[in-house]
């Protein structure tokens, strides 16, 4: 048995050794085509390489495309890297490495056209490569440069694909290629019909490619797949220029041409038997030019009437590049369905953007709604409390490099810092200015400027990063049209949590009961043992603390600078006023209205954000004229004021 086993092993080794040398043999067969390749000759080499199915072909094609294949003077091919005056060689079959002098080798340098052909062949191997990254690269390469001969290998690789996501991508890409390059019209139509539910940019590009047209003009309507007939009178000048370019009509005689011809043919104060003194009108100049044309001195006169007659005598059309009308009809129907779906998807995406912006405005304005509604104080420094919260998050991240943990620490810390700052501001300034709104506005405006300058002195004028955790990177993608970033989703969730907490505090706690009592009737609340002064202080601190937390959330989405509060103070006041002063639900309604309105105006006028904000302010001014107490009017002191 032992001699038999050794003999079998020797046979297997011999066969394996022979197979290992197969690639070099194929290369030797096509040595001339490899040394001086062209787009036509290289296809023969590639066909043999692809048919061989050898695993080392993939590496060889990659290296050949990258100009790393060298031929030795004896005709042998190697994969090589330059190393000074030597070459670091690798055998194309055995991968054995060696080093030789560069003088005895010639580098193969395929041009760009040949490399594209090589890339197409290489994709066929990469589609079924054991390495997932190579397969993904191959699919991405097909998506960038789709060609007809890629359809077969792509379809063949679908069944053996083990990665579910990549398999779905292969099926989608094969569907797109089938729609363009399929041999059977029924298969193409089926692929096109399947694209009617695909809102991706690729699908729309494929359908538009199938429906591409070329315009033309002829004496009679041509045969073929005509997309539409064109009315030349819609653009008469361009249509007549097309006639001239097609050689179907002479160039129109312009007034400048007529004048130059008349000046060149003046003889004895006359032009074509017409006195020069009588050439003061267009009709006279045209008549003189016509006589010159009859004499053969100038080209024939082509008037506007002649142009109109020529336009009427010809047929202008747009003809599909695709010859089969069934295919273009299917593509038209599919594209129409896709456009409807894209329209709905854009509406959903716009609604998500509006909801996201409304969440940001709600977070920025809810603290102001509490202080303004309960105390009637116009706090122009509210934006600076937002700024303080954002900078708190930045400072925490300097000491806590774990971004998730730093955000968890920053939220309560920002509340504590801005709560304390709000209480200090109320005790030192606001309490002395109650019922004096103008002085309150000026004082808080001055405080806001001072806080901005203080932030500049501490942190500088450059924007500081407030980095979000990795799990907030990227976006939730529903389709090529509908997507929303995870940060915006987090802000929306945070806004919902705050709404629930504030409603709980106001409706279910003693502090909330006292706040509502002071809001509705401070005199009666005082007679019942509630200290309005203390409630005002706590309310102002609570509103400021909420602004600090909002600053951390907004800082994850926007830039953190000393002026960031100014970007939200106007919207915050508009949110409070439009929604209804001192009402949580009113603030939510106001934020929703302003957020959706701003996004809607920006969608109508995307190139000018400043104009969109201006239109929004004008709309809100008109809205307040008809509903001065806001969407949700408050009962009690604020309503009476």
Helix coverage percent: 55-70%
Q: How far apart lie the N and C ends? A: 109 Å
Alpha plus pi helix count: 27
Query: What composes the largest sheet?
Result: 5 strands, antiparallel
Protein described:
The chain is built from 27 helices and 12 strands. A 5-stranded antiparallel β-sheet has the order 4-3-2-1-5. Strands 6-10-7 form a 3-stranded antiparallel β-sheet, with helices on one face. A two-stranded antiparallel ribbon has the order 8-9. Mean pLDDT is about 80; it is low at about 1-20 and about 635-640. The protein is of the alpha+beta class and about 650 residues long. The chain folds into 4 domains: about 1-115, no CATH class; about 125-210; about 215-320, no CATH class; about 345-565, no CATH class. The radius of gyration is 39 Å and the shape is extended. The longest helix is centred in the middle third of the chain and has 51 residues, at about 325-375. Helix 6 (about 110-125) crosses helix 7, helix 9 (about 165-180) packs across helix 10 and helix 11 runs antiparallel to helix 16.
Descriptive keywords:
alpha+beta; 4 domains; disordered C terminus; 64% helix; 641 residues; five-stranded antiparallel sheet
List the helices and strands and how they pair.
Blueprint: H1 2-20, H2 22-29, H3 31-35, H4 42-52, H5 56-65, E1 69-72, E2 77-83, E3 86-91, E4 97-101, E5 105-107, H6 112-126, H7 132-144, H8 151-158, H9 164-181, H10 185-194, H11 201-210, E6 213-218, E7 226-230, H12 236-245, H13 255-264, E8 270-271, E9 274-275, H14 282-294, H15 304-312, E10 315-320, H16 325-375, H17 382-399, H18 403-428, H19 437-459, E11 475-477, E12 483-485, H20 486-508, H21 510-520, H22 522-527, H23 532-557, H24 566-579, H25 584-604, H26 609-626, H27 637-640
Antiparallel strand pairs: 1-2, 1-5, 2-3, 3-4, 6-10, 7-10, 8-9, 11-12
Helix pairs in contact: 2-4, 4-6, 5-6, 6-7, 7-9, 8-9, 9-10, 9-11, 10-16, 11-16, 12-15, 13-14, 16-20, 16-23, 16-24, 16-25, 17-18, 17-19, 17-23, 18-23, 20-21, 20-23, 21-23, 24-25, 25-26
């Amino acid at each position: 048995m032992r001699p038999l086993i050794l003999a079998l092993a020797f046979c297997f080794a011999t066969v394996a050794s022979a197979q290992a040398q197969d690639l070099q043999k194929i290369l030797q067969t096509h040595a001339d085509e490899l040394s001086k390749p062209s787009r036509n000759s290289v296809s023969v080499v590639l066909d043999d390489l692809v048919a061989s199915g050898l695993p080392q072909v993939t590496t060889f094609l990659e290296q050949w495309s990258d100009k790393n294949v060298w031929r030795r003077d004896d005709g042998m091919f190697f994969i090589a890297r330059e190393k000074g005056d030597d070459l670091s060689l690798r055998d194309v079959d055995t991968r054995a490495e060696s080093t030789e002098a560069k003088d005895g080798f010639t580098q193969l340098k395929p041009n760009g056209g040949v490399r594209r052909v090589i890339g197409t062949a290489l994709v066929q191997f990469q589609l079924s490569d054991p390495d997932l990254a190579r397969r993904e690269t191959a699919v991405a390469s097909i998506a960038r440069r789709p060609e007809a001969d890629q359809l077969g290998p792509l379809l063949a690789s679908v069944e053996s694909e083990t990665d579910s996501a990549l398999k779905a991508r292969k099926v989608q890409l094969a569907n797109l290629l089938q729609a363009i390059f399929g041999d059977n019209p029924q298969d193409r139509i089926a692929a096109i019909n399947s694209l009617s539910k695909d809102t991706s940019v690729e699908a729309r590009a494929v359908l538009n490619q199938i429906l591409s047209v070329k315009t033309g003009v002829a004496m009679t309507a041509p045969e073929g797949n005509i997309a539409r007939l064109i009315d030349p009178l819609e653009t008469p000048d361009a249509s007549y220029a097309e006639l001239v370019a097609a050689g179907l009509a002479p160039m129109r005689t312009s007034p400048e041409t007529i004048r130059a011809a008349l000046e060149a043919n003046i003889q004895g104060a006359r032009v074509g038997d017409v006195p020069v003194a009588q050439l003061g009108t267009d009709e006279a100049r045209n008549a003189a030019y016509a006589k010159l044309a009859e004499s053969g001195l100038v080209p024939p006169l082509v008037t506007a009437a002649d142009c109109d007659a020529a336009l009427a005598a010809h047929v202008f059309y747009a003809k599909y590049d695709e010859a089969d009308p069934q295919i273009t009809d299917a593509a038209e129907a599919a594209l129409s369905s896709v456009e409807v779906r894209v329209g709905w998807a854009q509406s959903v995406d716009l609604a998500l953007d509006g909801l996201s912006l409304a969440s940001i405005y709600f977070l920025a304005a809810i603290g102001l709604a509490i202080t303004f509604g309960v105390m009637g104080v116009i706090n122009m420094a509210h934006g600076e409390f937002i700024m303080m919260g954002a900078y708190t998050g930045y400072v925490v991240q300097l000491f806590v490099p774990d971004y998730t943990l730093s955000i968890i620490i920053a939220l309560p810390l920002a509340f504590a810092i801005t709560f304390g700052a709000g209480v200090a501001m109320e005790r030192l300034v606001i309490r002395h200015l109650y019922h004096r709104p103008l002085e309150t506005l000026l004082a808080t405006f001055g405080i806001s400027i001072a806080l901005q300058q203080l932030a500049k002195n501490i942190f500088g004028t450059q924007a500081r990063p407030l980095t979000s955790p990795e799990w907030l990177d990227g976006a939730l993608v529903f389709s090529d049209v509908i997507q929303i970033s995870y940060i915006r989703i987090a802000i929306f969730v945070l806004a919902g949590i705050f709404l629930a907490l504030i409603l709980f505090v106001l409706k279910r706690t003693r502090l909330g009961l006292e706040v509502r009592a002071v809001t509705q009737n401070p005199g009666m609340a005082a007679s019942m043992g509630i200290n309005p002064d203390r409630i005002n202080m706590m309310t102002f601190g609570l509103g400021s603390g909420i602004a600090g937390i909002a600053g951390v959330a907004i800082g994850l989405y926007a830039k953190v600078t000393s002026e960031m509060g100014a970007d939200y103070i106007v919207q915050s006041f508009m949110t409070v006023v439009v929604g209804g002063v001192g009402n949580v639900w009113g603030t939510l309604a106001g934020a929703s209205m302003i957020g959706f309105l701003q996004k809607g105006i920006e969608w109508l006028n995307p190139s000018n954000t400043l104009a969109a904000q201006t239109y929004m302010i004008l709309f809100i001014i008109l809205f307040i004229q008809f509903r001065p107490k806001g969407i949700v009017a408050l009962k009690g002191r604020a309503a009476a004021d």
